[in-house]
Amino acid sequence: MRSAEAIVTAAMGRFARDGFATPLRAIAEDAGVSAPLIVHHFGSKQGLRDAVDDHVLALVDEKLRRFETGGFAAAAALVLPLYEQGDLPRYLRRTLAEGGPASRRLLESFVTTTEKALAHLGLAEPRMTAGLLVSHSLGAILLADPIGDAVGVDLFSADGIARWAASAIGIYRGDLAPLLS
Amino acid sequence: MRSAEAIVTAAMGRFARDGFATPLRAIAEDAGVSAPLIVHHFGSKQGLRDAVDDHVLALVDEKLRRFETGGFAAAAALVLPLYEQGDLPRYLRRTLAEGGPASRRLLESFVTTTEKALAHLGLAEPRMTAGLLVSHSLGAILLADPIGDAVGVDLFSADGIARWAASAIGIYRGDLAPLLS
DNA sequence: TTGACGGTTGAACAGTTGTTCAATACAACG
DNA sequence: CGTTGTATTGAACAACTGTTCAACCGTCAA
What we know:
2 copies of one chain form a homodimer. Chain A is mainly alpha-helical.
């Protein structure tokens, strides 16, 4: 049964890096097994992908659970640890781009957790605001690389994170308010 | 030469809906031509994709040019017209998820345009702030469907857009500031 | 009319893909 | 020991893929 875990891990990495069109044989090689064994364990390639989705959702939920309480740091801290796992943000990016059911399960977790962190603010529409805030955080995950290029900063470096955070704080404090007619 | 345009249009739709792994034959059928003709015109499937990327970038640039000046409405108005084209936002979503060179060209346009709209605010880091704002806007494009599901609102309906905008204005005015330690 | 040429096609090819199948290794259990 | 079952594999298959090739069609110049 150990090989099943190795397969899921290898599949997550390959899907994240090369997309879901990655051949089963490549995943099998990474996991040190044969392609038919994957079908034997997961029924089909789609079955494997479902298993990887479950695994990723569990990973995210575990990380989210640490930030159910707490202040605004939740929104930032919610994003940063995701970067530490090399393959996780890339897999999320691909999942969200497809927009399938896994994408919906994922967002449900994020929005609900964020809504709890916003509960004591007395907002008019806490869930809508939570959705907006999640789209901000995940948008940063999805676009960190090309935006870093455009801005000319490595957003993964300490300096990049600090400046990114400073600008974010400015925005959430109202720096852009003069633009609102 | 008319068929080349039909091919690009069909390819954009297919790529947007089914991903870049869509077979050439499917695109050919949509365009009402044969698969070899696509290779004849664009050299290869990759050549076709490059042509579609160019086409999409031109579309986006044209839309962006209308909002180079103007206030905060730029950020909102920047997003909304993209929705009207059925395939465009989906194509952007797939492009951004891949993170290739097309993704970089795209973000460069967005960030530069947004930076101009922010110029007169006297921000400490206008380009970084512009990057952040772009990630907010595009994050909304990328995640509108699953977030709408999570929030329980159709973000494409008039009601959904109005409530989304109201929450966004609240955030940019500082509703979340109490959370900043 | 003849010739040339770009647009277009059906047929075919070689490579890749997910999946099936029969067979092997191997552990657990009686 | 034998046997039962699970994990695992190489070989093979049918379907699909991007691409090539020779041929056809139309137009337009000479």
